[in-house]
UniProtKB/TrEMBL annotation:
SUPFAM superfamilies: P-loop containing nucleoside triphosphate hydrolases. Residues 4-76 form the ABC transporter domain. It comes from the Bacteria. Gene3D superfamilies: P-loop containing nucleotide triphosphate hydrolases. Belongs to the ABC transporter superfamily. The keyword Transport applies. The lineage of its organism: Bacteria, Pseudomonadati, Pseudomonadota, Gammaproteobacteria, Enterobacterales. This is Branched chain amino acid ABC transporter ATPase.
């Protein structure tokens, strides 16, 4: 039996009907529409779609931040801290 990761993520972004409550940043998003969830900063990029195959890891993460480009510098700094990369280091390596 599969652990249900994809089903859980699809429920969070309202791609499938779910029961219960879904919270994001302490807000109930259970009844929010998908575009409203994305505006809050939560998005799903399904693996294996090969949409942006030529982008670096950093560029892929920046695509996820497109909705908040004004705050991108803060997000970028957090991203580097999370991935322990330097601006000229591993985070810019091309994905395999």
């Amino acid at each position: 039996m599969a652990p249900g990761k994809t089903s859980t993520l699809n429920g969070i972004v309202n791609l499938v009907r779910s029961s219960g409550r879904v919270s994001f940043l302490n807000d109930d998003i259970s009844r929010s529409q998908t575009h409203q969830i994305v505006r809050r900063g939560l998005a799903l990029v399904p693996e294996g779609r090969r949409v942006f195959t030529n982008l670096t890891i950093e560029e892929n993460l920046r695509m996820g931040a497109y909705n908040n480009l004004a705050g991108y510098a803060r997000l970028r700094d957090r991203m580097y801290a999370l991935f322990r990369g330097s601006r000229s280091g591993a985070i810019r390596w091309r994905a395999p």
